[in-house]
Amino acid sequence: MPDLLLELFSEEIPARMQAKAAEDLRRMVTDRLVAEGLVYEGAKAFATPRRLALTVHGIPARQPDLKQERKGPRVGGAEAAILGFLKATGLNSLDEAKIQRDPKGDFYIALTEKPGKPAVDVLAEILPLIIRTFPWPKQMRWGELSAKSSALTWVRPLHSIVATFGIETEEPEVVQFDLSGVSVGQTTYGHRFLAPDAIQVRRFDDYVAKLQAAKVVLDPERRKEIILADARQLTFAQGYELVEDPALLDEVAGLVEWPVVLMGSFDKDFLSIPDEVIRATIRANQKCFVVRDPKTQKLTNKFIITANIEASDGGTAIIAGNERVIRARLSDAKFFYETDLKTKLEDRLPKFEQIVFHEKLGWESDHVARVERLAVELALLINADPEKTKRAARLARADRLSEVVGEFPELQGIMGKYYLLAQGEDSSVAAASEEHYKPQGPTDWVPTNLVSVAVALADKLDALRGFWIIKEKPTGSKDPYALRRAALGVIRLILDNNLRLNLVELIWKLVRRGIQIDQHPSSEGKKHHLLLNVVVTNFVVEQKMLEFSEPVSEVAAQAEADKFASEFTSKIAADLLNYLAERLEGQLRDQGARHDLVKATIDGQDDLLMVVRRVEALGKFLDSDDGKNLLAGTKRANNILAIEEKKDKRKFDGAPDAALFKLDEEKALARAIAEVGPEASAAVAKEDFAGAMTAMAKLRPAVDAFFDKVKVNDDDAAVRENRLKLLNEIRAATRAVADFSKIQD
Description:
Blueprint: E1 3-10, H1 15-35, E2 42-48, E3 51-57, E4 66-74, H2 79-89, E5 98-100, E6 107-114, H3 119-132, E7 158-166, E8 173-174, E9 183-185, E10 187-189, E11 198-200, H4 204-213, H5 220-237, E12 241-242, H6 246-253, E13 260-265, H7 275-286, E14 289-292, E15 299-307, H8 316-340, H9 345-348, E16 356-358, E17 362-363, H10 364-382, H11 386-395, H12 403-407, H13 414-422, H14 427-435, H15 450-469, H16 483-496, H17 503-513, E18 516-524, E19 527-536, E20 539-548, H18 554-590, H19 595-602, H20 608-622, H21 625-648, H22 664-685, H23 689-697, H24 699-709, H25 717-734
Parallel strand pairs: 7-9
Antiparallel strand pairs: 1-3, 1-7, 2-3, 4-6, 5-6, 7-8, 10-11, 12-14, 13-15, 14-15, 16-17, 18-19, 19-20
């Protein structure tokens, strides 16, 4: 079947846009093909600084014929409806329509057949539309037609389009369409400097080969491979090691069509600057990689350049130009660093009183004070040094006010560590400056220094508490304050460090501490009102108006305010805890745990570490025959109870009456529950979840026998109720370990 080759050749496309643009092109073209009935076999898109390219193979040569059936008005219906039906369907008269018999009346049916078009004609229709509606974040107009609002827009001036269609063994056909004067054909161009002449191409394989000969590597992944391999080889030959940087590699591969790797150097005096500052300077200003000594793991005074040209002088001028710029930038960085060292971080803290953390949550200084207080409380709970923790929490964000972090925000925390060590602070206090931001993603490392852990938890919990109170929690598509990352950070800090924290109590206290209730009593004739406001940093986030038959006293007003504060706190705390539970469920699922086991164990639990251990033990138990059979029996008991409780509109709680047991299987089940319940509960209390599962396994034979021999809904009402109570005992006993009703079979 035929293949499509499409290339959009333009001025330089920003590197940060290329990957998404290539994917957008593939998606838009293939979606439209499928919508037109042209189901393809495969597609792949590519991007270079000057072109987007797409190959789609296995496209049918022609659309299938489309048969449509359209229901019309009722036979004998209004004349206007019939005329409208004929016009809409293209029928000349009702004689061309069919009649559909229906109990509600007979209807006219129009059967129309729309013949399919050649695929090349379909492409000629859809490609210009796709190009005109391409979702670039920023677009421009150019040339003589730019004054017109209907002018073609693109990320950079679009010069030419290659659009060919055909099978491999034949000469391809050019997809002909008009697009604001941009030529469409088989002509593209090679490297801007090394091979700028026009190239005639036929289909994708031919296109790739001719571009390669014209010094253009089409595939960005191939360009990345070339850069990485050549950089590794060049540094290894000099006895050094490349500091690999995947994000920078992606960017650099988007800046060149013909990558040429070179090595430059800078003065060794600049090595007195921290490695992170050198790397940030060279990376940000010249998009170059840094190099380290494999023995010391410290940076050397070398760097790797990726040029887009094979220079006649071997790259000497390119290296010299980069060295000149990097020398100037490192001079600035050295000046900033040495200037920062002259002022202690603590002396910079007053500036936080002039920087807004969030308009509804106060100044940066308020946030620091909140984190400092909470970090000390957490330090006492996790056995961290409270004085060091207090000091670390106070200074952890202070490097944001430094010159280096002002120039390179990505170094916040890292520079704080250097500055605090330089001014003689304790190493754990200094480490917390960097580590309290951790973890910053699912693959980022988690600090183990307890001072850092306490500050990190405090920082993240304060942010979650604050933004939940002011109703700025994340949505499915928006998370401007990185609260999802903060929640996952809290979970990983707790689990990876085996911390025992009562999150329910902790978050409730945090939320209550974060609000105040403003009272406004008023009277209008015989009506007396009390307006209560939940206030955070002078912003009202929730209101409640109460009416009284007589003036409200100060004591009564305060009681209502306390009640309102408690209700609001409980609502916000419960919602935040539920959010943390959802994030924990997602994380455990990503690690291979069953989501239903998490749901079965997490309700009512305030200790995340214990939830994880319960899930692990429950998973192992349910993999055994005892676990599978007990689950089946317990779910059967739950289902019967649910039905009967709904029917009788009451619960069957309370202990069953042993005198009403008629069968041995009832007595055996009661004895098993009496033995297993306390044993499982005792094991759970000792956090021996494996032991609890072992105890639960003893129920299995008695439950199996009960359901095999006993009729629950006995004709005797008293016996029926007693047996339902016995089923409730099964449910109660198993819930000491987990809610089996939430576990899938």
